[in-house]
Structure formats: C-alpha cells, structure tokens
Amino acid sequence: MIYVDDREDGKVLEMFAKTGLDVEVKRLKCGDYVCDELGVVIERKSIDDFCGSIMDGRLKSQADRMLEQYENCFVLIAGRIGDRKTEINENCILGMMSSLVMKGIHVVCLDNEEQLVFFMKRIFERFTEMNGGEKK
Amino acid sequence: MIYVDDREDGKVLEMFAKTGLDVEVKRLKCGDYVCDELGVVIERKSIDDFCGSIMDGRLKSQADRMLEQYENCFVLIAGRIGDRKTEINENCILGMMSSLVMKGIHVVCLDNEEQLVFFMKRIFERFTEMNGGEKK
C-alpha cells in the first residue's frame, strides 16, 4: 500500500491514482508518497516549491526526517531550474541538490508532473519486484 | 586528482578545468570523470547522448562497468527530456532512469552544461570534505 499525504496536489494525486497502484490518502508526518513495506519515501516538489523550501530551511529538516525513517529516499522535482520564479541563486539550488545526493537521497529532476508520476510508478513497481512480489 | 576522459567535449572540459580542481586528461576505461581516491565516477551525457546510449544498449554496459569499479556512481544529464531530438519514447527514457537509480546510480538532469559542471564541482568538493581533506 502506498500512502499519499492528504495535502498533495489534487491533479497530481489524480494522475497517480490512475497508475493502478494501491493508494490510500492520509496525513503523513514525512514525505508525500510512502510505502512502509518497501521502505520508500518520496518528497515531490515543483521547482518553485523546491526553491522555497531551500530558502525557509524546510528542505533540510524534511530530508533529515526522511533519512531517519526510510531506507530509500527520493526528492523528485518537476520543472527546470531555469524556469523558476523564485529569487534564488542557481548555485544555491545546485549546491542543495548535491548536498541531498551526498546524504544518500536520490534527486531526480523531471520536466513536468506527468513525467514525475510515471517515474514514481516505475520506482514503486521496481521496488515491489525487487522485494519479490505483489506488495502493491 | 580527477581524471577526465580524453574524448570529453572540449568546451565542457575547459569549463571544468576552470573550477580550480586538479584535473588530468587521459583515456579512461569507464566514465568521463573519475577520482579513484574518492571512489567517484561520473558519466556525463547530453540528453541526446543519453537517449542514443539507451537505444544502442551502451548505457547498460557503461552502468555495469561503473558499478563494478566505483562506489559512488553518477550519470549526469544536460538538457531535459522534452528537448531531445532523438526518436525515443519518453517512457523508455524514464524507465531507464528509474532502472539506473534502482541499481544505486545517482541520475541527475540539469538544464545545461554550465549547471552540470557546477554540480560536478560540488560533488567532488563534498566527497573531498567527507574524506577529510585536500585530496584534490
């Protein structure tokens, strides 16, 4: 079972629900998409969310919480750095991305939410396969 | 010391040489940028290289070689999926990205070569710090 945070964007959640994976919505303490059996947590962000969460320090604590509780941590970003509307230096963004990577978090940037949802689907499917079964 | 493959693009190599890291160019058997002391290997690709190497099967063997020889493996992609000129289905690209991630390779897509070079610089610097010193 994949739990999705009840504050997740309605449109993205709808797309994710169509992937065929078993999904339940509830309030999560950590991450936006989690599967406890697989030890997977995903924090999904638009590029502007990502920039905002660097600036207010939220990202650092979110990352630490993910790493404390899950083995396989992902920060997935939709949108390009060049498209950001947030006033933040490009090197700060790249620096934070490298810092997350160094902590062991996978940081993957996709063009848009559609790509991101498909990528999440593949990640959950592959972890399920690796885990040897149908733990949807 | 960071070794760069002698087939690396001249413009990117020139940008990387300006980062101030110690660089030597030679023919590499695996990866485009490697640091043996830090156990880091980076395969740098434009989005079209990335797509091409999925289609001809090169990427899979490159990834396997990296994983055999280095602890910290990166595939860094400049350019976004939507920018590709290669005729390959978007889901194939996303599928391959998720497959590399599942093998333990960090896959990071940046907007352009400038961002990619800065990201590489930070990665090498952080591994050096983590390793406790000035192993440039």
Please explain how this structure is put together.
2 copies of one chain form a homodimer. Helices cover 45% and strands 22% of the residues of chain A. By secondary structure, chain A is an alpha/beta fold. Chain A has a single domain (2-129), classed as Rossmann fold. A 6-stranded mixed β-sheet of chain A has the order 2-1-3-4-5-6, with helices on both faces. In chain A, β1, α1 and β2 (23-26) form a beta-alpha-beta unit. The first copy, chain A, is globular and about 45 Å long. The model of chain A has no long low-confidence stretch (mean pLDDT 95). At the A-B interface, α4, β6 and α5 of A face α4, β6 and α5 of B.
Brief overview, please?
Two copies of one chain form a homodimer. The first copy, chain A, has 136 residues and is an alpha/beta fold. Chain A is 45% helix and 22% strand.
Question: How is this fold's topology laid out?
Answer:
2 copies of one chain form a homodimer.
Chain A: E1 2-5, H1 10-17, E2 23-26, E3 33-35, E4 40-46, H2 47-55, H3 58-69, E5 72-78, H4 90-103, E6 106-110, H5 113-130
Number of domains of chain A: 1
Global mean pLDDT of chain A = 95
Query: What's the order of the H and E elements of chain A?
Result: EHEEEHHEHEH
CATH topology of chain A, by name, is Rossmann fold
Radius of gyration of chain A: 14 Å
Give start-end ranges of low-pLDDT stretches of chain A: none
Q: Based on DSSP secondary structure assignment, what is the total number of beta strands of chain A?
A: 6
Q: What is the tally of helical segments of chain A?
A: 5
Assembly context of the chains: homodimer
- Most extensive interface, residues per chain? A-B, 27 and 27 residues
- SS class of chain A: alpha/beta
